[in-house]
């Protein structure tokens, strides 16, 4: 044991004593975990203070990334890695008979997001801190994260996520920086010194309390901030009411106020027009913008130069009220004129569009909106009025129409940059969904293909592969992910490929053990691990995947000697609680799994596993063990996808439609190193109106057999269970083109089987995939945002 490790050991024992009041021999897991976090905090805080001093001294432009979701996962080990002390810590703890791994498992995921959009925000924070961008997150500190999923009899059951139960060692509460947020009431207008002023009165208010989470850069001594806002009632306890024995009414205020931060809304595209959601969105934006302005003024800077020192980015339209809120502050509180305020606001704000699915586009009923946010409504009306005055034909582009406020339109008009998240997505925005805006503002539109934090999604989650890469090409790739291409020249190197095979086999063995523990299913670690893990949604087409599984099962029953490499189909993902069809898909996967896993006739060939409670930390365990990455969304529907990038980076081969970033992955690795299938965007649009799915159902016996098995008793006695799935496909004329792509998908799966049988070729493909995954690091994405949108410094 070296001196540094010994010092760490001593510090740790001291931390146990002074922060938990315990000695090692009577410390519980909670004590051991918190003592470690508290010790690491000390190191982090040192750099946090320095970073903020540097930002102030150099008067550096700051970026604020506003997002309703931050799907951070666990922070402990990631912080250790970024501080560069993971090995020291792990060895020192080992000396004390403490397993770092066990403490990591003990930590709760910070699951403040639904899926891709929230994880993107988390990856961006890691990259901003690591490539020296002065960039911070602004979000909500939900009391309960995204729900915990249990599978009971094949059905999804939701449970609350008590992530704050054991206190969060990574946050600092800053009570003294509270912001008052006002709802309801009315706006009085009067002339004061010959100027029209607006006074918001008779409002109800709550306090927004910031909790700051340090975001540690990778070995660069930089620590940025994720500021999460929590709520507190202004008069949370009514003493007189309590004295009269009315205990519930005494805390009614508190309960009403706290509802704002209780829970993250599940994105099911069905929760339309919910007042509480609008309250959350304004709460985030009001507290977030005001605290930025406060900080800015404290530094004595000139408000007319605000946009030169501050960039505000909105992650989808959820924080788009930042636009009227900044206008409100500049005009009502700071006394600027409209035109000046408008120029500052537009130049400060930039917007990322995440979806073209019309049911996911936010809009608010004006009557509900006007009541809750009277002054903000007036400002939006005025923005809309001026826009209509300036632009001739505003049929699709006005903000207010049909008694609704369209948040995407507000975001485009009120910002200086609108970006899509993959090349195809951005093209569709420009040519189709937002084409009327593209004609008005051609220069606002740009593409920023999503990315992933390669330090979490490779260095941290797959240490064996990371070591192999570093031994082969050196460690430069950790700070400069493009350097992964240096691996490409080893694609024919049998020593490297053998090692890669061992790494994958080891990861698969670990996942097999986990599956055996959690699902009581024994899977063959030498089978092909075929993985689809992501939110359950019709457009992501878990249905297409499970239909192929049913078809394969049928084929093996007909031909027991079918020569295929054994395969394990692994699924994981949550359905929004109100999304009926998605929940049916989960039940279908589990029903098929039960049937197949209990059928001795196919036991050496196929298995199906649904792992419950998909999360960042579960993804970190599954992805390193994956052979085949399923990225099979209906073309045009997946704006980018980021799961696809995580898998390729870990040496999986992708089976994909030409959708979202899959197209860019295919370009990067070449068509020999990915398996593509299905219709393309052009065909998708051409088929609208002419497609008839019954033609396929009636003419392709394989399709008919699979679909009929949903309702004919083959899978389950209950003929009604999957009838809704069956009829939604037929009734909606297969709107996600499952039947249309079925044949092509089966062929692609057969191709995968053939490729895997040539292990040497397969490993070569894996090397090529890893080598070309560097461009999908969010370091590159953030570099482009910093240069092309935010105009801020970076490494
Ligand atoms: C990466 C990630 C996602 C997004 O996956 P997609 O396949 O792009 O939909 C969702 N949830 C978690 C936990 C993730 O890590």
From TrEMBL:
GO terms for cellular component: cytoplasm. GO terms for biological process: glycogen catabolic process. Keywords: Allosteric enzyme, Carbohydrate metabolism, Cytoplasm, Glycosyltransferase, Pyridoxal phosphate, Transferase. Gene3D superfamilies: Glycogen Phosphorylase B. It is an enzyme of class 2 (transferase). Its cofactor is pyridoxal 5'-phosphate. Allosteric enzyme that catalyzes the rate-limiting step in glycogen catabolism, the phosphorolytic cleavage of glycogen to produce glucose-1-phosphate, and plays a central role in maintaining cellular and organismal glucose homeostasis. This is Alpha-1,4 glucan phosphorylase. It comes from Alkalithermobacter thermoalcaliphilus JW-YL-7 = DSM 7308.
